[in-house]
Amino acid sequence: MKIEKNQWKILSTRQKITYFKDYYLFQILCTAVGIAIVVSLCWHILHKSESILYVAVVDDILNDEETQKVEQELEKIFNNGTDRTFVTIDDSFYTDGDGLNKLEVYLSNHQIDLVIANEEVIRTFAGYGFMQDLNTVLEEDELERNTNQFLYAAGYKENDDISFEDKETGQGEILPYGVNIADSAEYKKLGTILKNPVVGIANNAKNMQNAKIFLKWLNGERIVEK
């Protein structure tokens, strides 16, 4: 029972403490927990990490230590003044089993910016409309620099309903969808086992500008940190 103001004065210290515990402590704790949850959510929203480059590597085995070093190097190159950004070079994609379906899901959700794989895989995904025509994203000097390493493939015939269930694939115009990086010293640092790795930019890549810079980096060009 809640006591009135005049009754409070006659209570002993021990009685006041007991009364406080019984009537107010639980409410105060609940309020404090609620405030802590709100503060935590706000902090995570304001400090949410952001992907600035995601590279999917198919049927290759990379050295984890060297890959981490490269990711950190690229993060410094792409850094936009915050430490809440990250680069991912993910070699967990394989053509065995349902591996290509996993890659399709990532590409459909625009989680991937570049794909490194063998020629067959790049051609397959170009045929399904998942790879970017390099003529549309590279500058003229970059096109000239890479012309001898381009992988040409037939693109997707239509612009909608892209899926591995669709049979009308690989019937579009033959265009440059990949760049052969077999001679890339930078990629070799990662311990690649692919004989003829090819890199392609994902169609409508979320981090298109960084993807283009990554191509320059693979070619050994010195990139100035932002």
Describe the structure.
It is a single chain. The protein is an alpha/beta fold and 226 residues long. It is built from 8 helices and 6 strands; from the N terminus they run H-H-E-H-E-H-E-H-H-E-E-H-E-H. Strands 2-1-3-6-5-4 form a 6-stranded mixed β-sheet, sandwiched between helices. Strand 1 (50-58), helix 3 (64-78) and strand 2 form a beta-alpha-beta unit. It is elongated and about 95 Å long. It starts with a helix and ends in an 8-residue tail after the last helix.
Structural domains: how many: 2
- End-to-end gap: 66 Å
Residue share in helix: 40-55%
Largest sheet: 6 strands, mixed
- What share of residues are in beta strands? 15-25%
User: SSE order in H/E notation?
Assistant: HHEHEHEHHEEHEH
Give the CATH architecture of the largest domain.
3-Layer(aba) Sandwich
**Quaternary organization:** single chain
CATH homologous superfamily classification of the largest domain: Periplasmic binding protein-like II
Q: Count of DSSP helices?
A: 8
| Shape call | elongated
Q: Strand arrangement, largest sheet?
A: 2-1-3-6-5-4
